[in-house]
Amino acid sequence: MTTTGYDLDALRVTFPRWAIFRSDAGAFYELCQAGGLLFIRRTYRSDAVLMHESEWLRTADGERLWLRVLLGQAR
User: Which of 10, 35, 50, 53 stands the most exposed, by the fewest C-beta atoms within 10 Å?
Assistant: First the structure.
């Protein structure tokens, strides 16, 4: 699937341990994991690429935040 210039299928192959999904707002979110820590990256393309990342979190805290993102409850 390609969205706003990104091939999400290629990203999933390149980063198999990352969970990636696209929102209806044209953004896509990545759950990134390394060394027992997680962070979430939000990327949005309009005139420029806007990227925001959460702080690095312990796995349990990162998974709770990821669930809130999936449910549309994270801010």
Answer: 35
30, 19 Cβ separation under 8 angstroms: yes
- Mapped onto helix, strand or coil, the DSSP state of residue 47 is coil
Whole-angstrom distance, CA of residue 64 vs CA of residue 8: 23
Phi-psi region of 73 (alpha: psi -120 to 50; beta: other; left: phi over 0): alpha
Name the residue with tokens 């209806």. Answer: 24
Q: Which amino acid is at 65?
A: L
**Is the pTM above the cut of 0.85?**
no
